[in-house]
Amino acid sequence: MTKLKEQLQETTAFLKEKGIGDVDFGLILGSGLGELADEIEEPIAVPFSEVPHFSVSTVVGHAGQLVYGTLSGKKVLAMQGRFHYYEGHSMQVVTYPVRMMAALGIHSIVVTNAAGGVNKAFEPGNLMLITDHINFTGDNPLIGENEDEMGPRFPDMSQAYTKDYQEIARKIAAEQGISLKEGVYMGFSGPTYETPAEIHMARTIGADAVGMSTVAEVIVAAHSGLKVLGISCITNLAAGMQSSLNHEEVVETTQRVKEQFKQLIKSTLEEL
Ligand code: HPA
């Protein structure tokens, strides 16, 4: 057995002992967006630090725990916080939670993040349906020997973000009067915010939003054959479009729009 498979067996055995077994949806909750996990019914919470082969998340605004239970009538396992490449974790560590979720038998993930708005029509506080991504991190979690049992050597990324899920999210947003933008998320390694020149490039090559997460997780989701719904919270205008950037503003904006964000995810989840 490969080392990854062995680790996953240990992790899933531990979670099953905690009562976390039957899961349909994985939720990955970004900076300031973790509160959605507080609405999970009959929750079982496990700090990342207790989960075998998990790393710890160090970012302000991330609680760093798994929360399992029922949300919108679905069995979900939420990551309140995530691992980032810029923390010094390898891409394999960043994406281990998605491997774990796949090993537990989920069929879909909902990925969320805070992102900078690149599209000139966006405003801080907008929610954006992710229709596609550009991996600009300079790395890829699938580099190395392929685990053929887990997925193909050359995964197709043509529909990494599931079209049907996008349709449902659009419909829910329209029904509930939530203005839902949509576009391409471009993932940078961070931890620096981008330069204005990099944002100019990002817009030129087709990005609508930029951030420091998500792309690696979605690559592993595609490799694992999982369906994906992605939602960004546009927390700020990207570099060069406003005077300066800081993490406090990112967290403040997520706090401002969290009710709408939670409502959109919960109502969409009901119909997935
Ligand atoms: N750039 C990168 N990551 C981000 C940003 C940004 O402007 N805002 C929130 N996360």
Automatic annotation (TrEMBL):
A purine D-ribonucleoside binds at E194, N236. Its EC number is 2.4.2.1. Keywords: Glycosyltransferase, Phosphoprotein, Transferase. It comes from Candidatus Enterococcus clewellii. Belongs to the PNP/MTAP phosphorylase family. This is Purine nucleoside phosphorylase. GO terms for cellular component: cytoplasm. The purine nucleoside phosphorylases catalyze the phosphorolytic breakdown of the N-glycosidic bond in the beta-(deoxy)ribonucleoside molecules, with the formation of the corresponding free purine bases and pentose-1-phosphate. Cleaves guanosine, inosine, 2'-deoxyguanosine and 2'-deoxyinosine. Homotrimer. It comes from the Bacteria. Pfam families: PNP_UDP_1. It catalyses: a purine 2'-deoxy-D-ribonucleoside + phosphate = a purine nucleobase + 2-deoxy-alpha-D-ribose 1-phosphate. It is an enzyme of class 2 (transferase). Phosphate binds at S31, H62, R82, F83, H84, A114, S213. Residues 25-269 form the Nucleoside phosphorylase domain.
